Amino acid sequence: MSERTAQLQELLFDPTSSLLTAELEALRLAAPVAEYSVKGDPRKPPGDSPRYKDLLATRSELEAVQGSMFNPYDIHAECEGPGRVALIRKMSPHGTSEMTVMAQEGHDGQAVTSLFGFAPEVRSVFCGVGAAFGEFSETRGLYPVVSYTFDPDTKDRKSAQSVKTYHMQLTARSPEELDGMAQASRPLGEYASNVERRQLIDESSIVYSLVLHDYFTAHPVGSLQSIPPFSADNCSNVRFRIGDRWSDIQTDEFDQNIRTIHDAMTKIYTDFSNAAMSGETGNWERPDMSTAKASNYIDNLAWMQADTKAIFQHYILGLRVKHLQRVESLKKLGLTAHAYPLAGLCYGTAINRNTDGELMLSIRPQQFVETGGTGLQYIDPTGAHVKMARGSGMYDQDELAAKAAFEKECAVYIVQSV
Question: What is the mean pLDDT of residues 87-100?
């Protein structure tokens, strides 16, 4: 960062101000975080296979996905049945042992941006794939995480999920990877840059998670009990205990529960927007927000606790809505992700084991951070939020051989299990 850029940042943003109350900000700054370098995959499909970004310039989202990702070279295997779900090579890796899961059917001609846009039988296949991946990985001494992101509307600034068509990510960490993440972790407060801090733990994630905890305490989701940020460990977002077996994510009850959570989050966001925001969402265009209307709306929520209301209102008052009109300046300074919100509701989901052996459902809402549910996760064995720094060098031939072997063996296991 140049000295001039640093000076302009200081003019735009008061480093002493915070979107969080003092107590919450102290917890945030003390939370361990890590940036972990991940190598790139040099393998390329043969011939002149089109790239997703190139196709997207002239085709629809779904057509771009179909033309670039559904090809014989990158598809490891297909699950017969609803959705014709494909296990696909992750072209821009988040780790050594992983794959992407996408439905080739069930779209009705347009991209399905949410798991809940698919028929129940297709959702069942996705969950079955995730459970089989978890089982396969753990029998090989690896630490699996099943994740996905919901961000259907952000198409201007770099979004948390560039590919809008729903896809599930399966990633398994080796003991060596986990050790490297733990070794790289340090308190968030040791990062000098406010921009970096927000990209590692977005304040909006903490605030909205507290809101969700209040809502799901007043409106329980089946057998799931919400766990608020920083209450059980260092995790900065809301989580739920699922069970202790991977098969627990294959039940009708779990399917209904995650659907209920998604619908509730959508309704909370929509109701707030209708009450406090005005204007359109478009290309570098976001609705304006009335702090007075927002405060009045929050005050009248019967299910929200008084402490959460105070935290939420503090957050609202700290937002610099004027920056919505300063897009070009933010672009030049590389600060869109620090001050310019994503378009609409966005959240990352991850399913992994905690240190007690319980499967956890992690829901991380976000407003500024650009990384999705796979690129930034709370990894329980490390006790830290870990952001993947992708493209740091390339896997060598021996590493690629091991990577390919995992992909082949895991794909066979999943297809046989689903």
Answer: 94
